[in-house]
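P.,

For your records, the input lines for the assembly:
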Amino acid sequence: MAKDVTIYTSNTCAYCHAAKEYFKQKDVTYTEINLDEQPEARQQLVELSGQMAVPVILITQEDGSREMTVGFDMPKLASALGV
Amino acid sequence: MAQKNLIIYGAHWCPDSQRVKHWLGEHDVNYVWKNVDDSQAIVDEMLSKTDNTNLIPTLDIDGTILVNPSDDELAAALHEPEEAEINYHDVITIGAGPTALATAIYTTREDIDTVLLEKGVVGGLAATTDLIENYPGFDEGVEGLHLAQNLQKQAERFGALIELAEVSSIKDEGQYKKIITSNGTYGARAVLIATGSDYKRLNVPGETEFYGRGVHFCATCDGAFYRDKRLVVVGGGNSAAQEGMFLTKFASHIDMLVRGDHLKASEVLIKKIESSDKITVHFNTTTDEILGEEGKFVTGVRATDKQSGESRVIATDGVFVFVGLNPNTAFLADSGVKLDEHGFVETDRTLQTNISGIFCAGDVRAGATQQIASAVGEGATAALMIREYLEEIG
Ligand SMILES: Cc1cc2nc3c(=O)[nH]c(=O)nc-3n(C[C@H](O)[C@H](O)[C@H](O)COP(=O)(O)OP(=O)(O)OC[C@H]3O[C@@H](n4cnc5c(N)ncnc54)[C@H](O)[C@@H]3O)c2cc1C
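Structure tokens returned:
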């Protein structure tokens, strides 16, 4: 199981809802950073990930390695989460 | 398991007949179904095998007769100690867009056990559309995500199960269909293909390299990153027009690049585009390349005026691509389901494909009108046709 899962979302983004729904079905706890509620996080996301898109999902493993997915890519998430 | 010749004599209304069929479906066993209500000849045939024992279900397994066997007896008779079980249901829909959700609302209300398999967003493309103005019943329009969530809640209220899985192939096993997914194997008595379509790519240099860093396919997802920035929208159809208008909420200016010489959108949308002071439409213009510094963000688009042949760079911070849709039918490659020359699924008037028990509705169906209202209409029709089919096969 991954150590930490963080997802950047916005209210209108359906793929963000889909990703969160997937975490729920797989019992994955996650931290959500909603860019509509925290507009200042927008710049942070761009700097951190080099992305201007949501959802961006950061998965940190026990060994500290980190993987990033842009969009809702179920197979990639499944393998990163080991579910 | 080596397949044996298996005949079941039974009836629709008989719970044990249904139980036995369910078990066989779950264990991937083919059989011939003989409904004793259909004719006296079938009853006589059964009685000749059972020494006149008049009980159903009666099974003839390679000449061995079993009368109302328990599940364990069935397993023993078929020499199948433990095989990977498959998730068996009455109806499985592939996709959980508006079409499949409408189908599920109808089937589950009739207590037909229905599972929807979805690889992306529940609510499909409709969920990613910002505002739907032409869906009947909402005088002020309705947000796509809101409509999608309501459809989902309505279907789930009647017992529909939505499972997140990508379907990679389906196979006709006669009495039931086998569905291979990223989440294991499913079996169903009837299948609905409702996989809709996905955005076409431009296939120009820079498109893949800058995906998420200036190249986008979803305005409701990523539009807000472009507050007070310049954007290019590629495409001239309804989606491009609708999404282009949505993006004027954020962008300071939008260049719309249209390959043809007019917009192929509804009159209302065309008027909105024409009267927007934020949008400049460039007709007869091809989009040839998306430019930017390697590893950084998009800075421009190279475009060519087809009439003058002149090529130029339009400076921009982002590009939203809406150049049409491709039907999601790649997973049907080896299924035997007939597609038309564009890859859409062909059906008859009852929305059944060339394979009995496999139905298709919504955007992915050849001849569909690609509107949410018609998608849910087709979904409802498919549900009624599926119900009839299930009654027929008993
Ligand atoms: C930008 C845009 C704006 C639009 N605006 C309007 C509008 O204003 N009014 C209107 O009426 N219509 C509009 N439409 C059209 C409308 O979205 C579609 O007609 C409708 O969504 C079709 O529903 P569907 O269920 O057939 O397909 P979809 O909504 O495409 O749903 C299909 C689902 O199947 C899933 N799927 C695909 N392949 C697989 C697989 N192998 N395994 C599992 N799941 C799979 C997909 O992830 C998807 O969720 C718009 C479309 C777009 C793109």
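Two observations worth noting. The two ends of chain B are 25 Å apart (CA to CA). The mean pLDDT of chain B is 93.

Regards
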